[in-house]
Amino acid sequence: MRILLVKCHPCPTSYGAAVAARAEATLAAAGHELRVTDLYAAGFDPVMGEAEWRHYHDEALNQIPVADHVADLTWAEALVFVYPTWWFGLPAMLKGYLDRVWVPHVTFEIPTATSPMRPRMQHIRKIAVVTTCGASWFVSKMMGEPGRKTILRGIRALCAPRCRTRYLAHYDMDSSTAQSRARFLDRVERKLADF
Q1: How much is the pTM?
Q2: CA separation for the pair 154, 194 (Å, rounded)
Q3: Would strands 126-133 and 108-109 be described as parallel, antiparallel, or unpaired?
Q4: What is the pLDDT of residues 130-174, one digit of tens each?
Q5: Over the stretch 120-131, which tens digit does the pLDDT of each residue have?
Q6: Are 165 and 127 a contacting pair, CB within 8 Å?
Q7: Helix, strand, coil abundance in the chain, percent, nearest 5
């Protein structure tokens, strides 16, 4: 399977980087064809400026600033996002990636007065999220997990009708232990080995 792995953490020596490395190694060992996007290492600019915004609806122009990322999206059959959950949601870098790369006419058709929004990512059959959360499972649920919903509901709605999803989270990161972190790395490996 062709998998696009999107990594989003500012520190290359963080636990989040270790999680991403385990995910990447596991997917490669399973024989998948991988493309890896490390948003911070690549210096991705998450800010959509005025000129880009003015061309957002223009099919001929909107993907030009992010053409390489769009090419990866259209190539992929599955997506894996690895990121820390901050303030119960996506890091600004990852949200900016979605804003700028998931453009109309590539990922969806804009709704009109006579037709609804139409998804254009039917080639994506699987999505996985691997994340860390400072809060507990209970508090995360109470807050509604907006980051989880953005990807596993919002992004999934643009994908294949039977797109399967997987969500792996290490909750209570702020009070995690070496043992809990090691267990989570092993869980990531187990759950992605058959992705």
Answers
A1: 0.94
A2: 24
A3: unpaired
A4: 999 999 889 989 998 999 999 999 999 999 999 999 999 999 999
A5: 999 999 999 999
A6: yes
A7: 40, 25, 35
For residue 26, CA distances in Å to 31, 121, 183 come to 9, 25, 15
Q: Return d(Cα 111, Cα 90) in angstroms, integer.
A: 25
DSSP state of 23: H
85 pairs with which residues across the strands? 133
Contact 16, 81 (CB under 8 A): no
DSSP state of 174: G
Question: Could you tell me the end-to-end alpha-carbon distance of the chain, in angstroms, rounded to an integer?
Answer: 9
**Residues in the chain, overall count:** 195
3-state secondary structure 86-145: ECCECCHHHHHHHHHHCCECCCEECCCCCCCCEECECCCCEEEEEEEECCCHHHHHHCCC
Q: What is the pLDDT of residue 107?
A: 92
Q: How many CB atoms lie within 10 A of CB 77?
A: 15
Q: Is the pLDDT of residue 116 over 90?
A: no
Token duo for residue 111: 């709704």
Q: What domains can be seen in the chain, in order of their start residue? A: 2-193 (3.40.50.360)
Exposed / middle / buried, residue 173 (Cβ in 10 Å: 0-12, 13-18, 19+): buried
Q: Residue 184: which of 74, 82, 43 has the closest Cα?
A: 82
Q: Tokens 């948003």 label which residue?
A: 39
